[in-house]
Amino acid sequence: MIRSVLAGTGRALPETIISNYDLEKIVDTSDEWIVTRTGIRTRFVAKTGSATSDLCAQAGKIALERANLSADELDFIIVGTVTGDMKFPSTAVYVQSKLGAKKATAFDIAAACTGFIYGMDLADSFIRTGKATKVLVIGGEILTSMLDWEDRATAVLFGDGAGAAVFVAEETEEKVGILSTYSKSDGTLAHLLYCPGCGSINPPSVQSIARRDHYIKMSGNEVFKHAVRMMRDSAVIGLERAGITMEELDLLIPHQANIRIIEATQERLKLPNEKVYVNLDRYGNTSAASIPIALDEAIELGKLKKGMTALFVAFGGGFTWGSACLRY
Ligand code: ACO
User: How far is CA 18 from each of CA 2, 53, 67, 316, rounded to the nearest angstrom?
Assistant: First the structure.
């Protein structure tokens, strides 16, 4: 049987860290409000004009080095992002060029915070069907480029960064690599979390800029309710599809959006704290980058070791949601 095995991971962050106290100076908020409602304390913020593809390429390069692979061996580069370098071409082609991955086919996935899970789903399909043997999946965002620093409801939530993972084909009878994937969407809920400006229906204009249409708009409470339900459901379905029991699960790596959403998922799975990876306090919500950054950290810290089983669960604008189960 051909399995998609994780061969290496990496992450890249901008230099600047902004704390809740720094935000207190920009918008009408407080560290106490942000920590209580979200669990976030600091986030990384890229300089204005930075390239998302630079962060992605940096994370991808580290992942390739750890996998002992050179970029020209890659068949596909899949980048999950909603804050790419430009409207077109894809951010993935810039990553391809920066890595020198001449043979690869590179493309983006616009699934917001679920982008990395969708990417894993595709990578697994390509590998299992024999279409590819080596796939680099990246989640990378410079969300602060789309943030309205005058809107306290969104400005405090997001951060920038990139995480990467290389999956390779392995012929084995062992239960290793990607054990299950699950992905869903519901476009009837798109209006609850979106960026209305700069697309075909509302091209950039003096009026659209004045209306601040080029920034993220979010109905926080609605997003919260759906996120809790869909993250919980995705977790249960992901484990069922993988044939893994709660007891066999070693680590839950949830999308890092809000500590209360994470705790609700944890409660549903009845998992102890030590089996749930949380780094949201230091990164904020990095959208598609949040799971691969957390995965890279978890491996580095020895919280995910060879032979252990992890479950990734995500939810994002669209709405999109899903999960992936991996035995490392
Ligand atoms: N600082 C201080 N007060 C604030 C802030 C802030 N940053 N933001 C909002 N408030 C105020 C509101 O104005 C409101 O005041 P009012 O009662 O006088 O009207 C009060 O706080 C309560 O606001 P709510 O929106 O009801 O606060 P809630 O407890 O719902 O928390 C939050 C808001 C944190 C945004 C929550 O709804 C949430 O986490 N939603 C999910 C958001 C999310 O995770 N989005 C991303 C998921 S998908 C993805 O990752 C792309």
Answer: 44, 22, 32, 23
